[in-house]
Specification:
Strand content: 15-25%
Order of helices and strands: EEHEHHH
Helix content: 25-40%
Strand order of the largest sheet: 2-1-3
Radius of gyration: 17 Å
CATH class of the largest domain: Alpha Beta
CATH architecture of the largest domain: 3-Layer(aba) Sandwich
CATH topology of the largest domain: GIY-YIG endonuclease
Number of strands: 3
Oligomer: single chain
Number of helices: 4
Shape: globular
CATH superfamily of the largest domain: GIY-YIG endonuclease
């Protein structure tokens, strides 16, 4: 069974790059060496690998990559720091119309 990995790189400009690969070491070297001039990370080196999660399903890895790409910076930082309570809090709906604010009266 081939493993896939979702990884987060912290760039020199404090932005994050999120990717998916079957070989994190090789992919990190490619990013760090500037192999592709048009790549997001090319002008943002040096890079630091700050998160990595293994998947046994390529489809699940790609789904997870897309999911965290849509997260706020605060949620990504909570994930990187393994702060799951903060991550859960940041994921909660805080709109006035959320079900948590519904009291049953009109």
């Amino acid at each position: 069974m081939k493993c896939m990995y979702v990884y987060i790189l912290e760039c020199s400009d404090d932005s994050f790059y999120i990717g998916v690969t079957n070989n994190v070491g090789r992919r990190f070297i490619e990013h760090s060496s500037g192999l592709h001039e048009k790549a997001y990370t090319f002008s943002r080196r040096p890079l630091k690998l700050v998160y990595c999660r293994q998947f046994t399903s390529p489809i699940k890895a790609i789904e997870y990559e897309k999911q965290i790409k849509g997260w706020t910076r605060a949620k990504k930082i909570a994930l990187i720091n393994c702060n799951y309570d903060q991550l859960h809090y940041l994921a909660e709906c805080k709109n006035k119309t959320t079900h948590k604010n519904f009291n049953g009266s009109k």
